[in-house]
Write a structure and sequence with these properties.
Strand order of the largest sheet: 1-2-3-4
Distance between the termini: 34 Å
Helix content: 25-40%
Shape: globular
CATH topology: Aminopeptidase
Structural class: alpha+beta
Number of domains: 1
Order of helices and strands: EHHEEEHEHEE
CATH superfamily: Gcn5-related N-acetyltransferase (GNAT)
Strand content: 25-35%
Oligomer: single chain
Length: 158
């Protein structure tokens, strides 16, 4: 599945499959580069693909959003217990309701409470989560993440 091509407007959500690893990795890398250019690259593309394939897709529950017509991957969300571990969109798929669809799918999976970490500088993501009822419960100087970038913990309760 390629993650390129124009978005047609119809979105289909489904559980991720092992074959999605390449497209999920592309979305992850492109999203971080576009939304957080201040982050240092701490892993190669190949190491990131290995991690998506062998850790994210096998160790968490992952939903993908794809263009219903082209089957292009538009974004994904990863749930690890009650931790929303990842929610990333292709840069050209942002602000179209896809992140909200993915977040609602995660919430519908049954957790009564979700937490997540977001970099303090990522003001757009912070605003997105706050619009969806998440509140800040902790801040950190960056010592708990490999990018050494100050972050925040948000929590949502059903």
């Amino acid at each position: 599945m390629q993650s390129d091509g124009p978005f047609t407007g119809d979105v289909h959500l489904r559980g991720a499959e092992p074959e999605d690893a390449g497209a999920v990795t592309e979305v992850f890398l492109a999203s971080r580069a576009a939304a957080m250019p201040y982050l240092p690259r701490v892993h190669s593309d190949e190491a990131t693909l290995w991690w998506i394939t062998n850790v994210v897709l096998t160790g968490t529950r992952v939903w993908v959003a794809e263009d219903a017509d082209t089957r292009a991957l538009l974004g994904f969300a990863s749930l690890d217990g009650n931790l929303l571990d990842h929610l990333y969109l292709r840069p050209d798929a942002r602000r179209r309701g896809i992140g909200t669809l993915l977040l609602e799918a995660v919430k519908s999976a049954g957790p009564q409470e979700l937490s997540l970490h977001v970099f303090q500088k990522n003001t757009e993501a912070r605003a997105f989560y706050e619009r969806h009822g998440f509140v800040v419960v902790d801040t950190n100087d960056g010592s708990r993440n490999e990018e050494n970038e100050p972050d925040m913990t948000y929590r949502w309760t059903a």
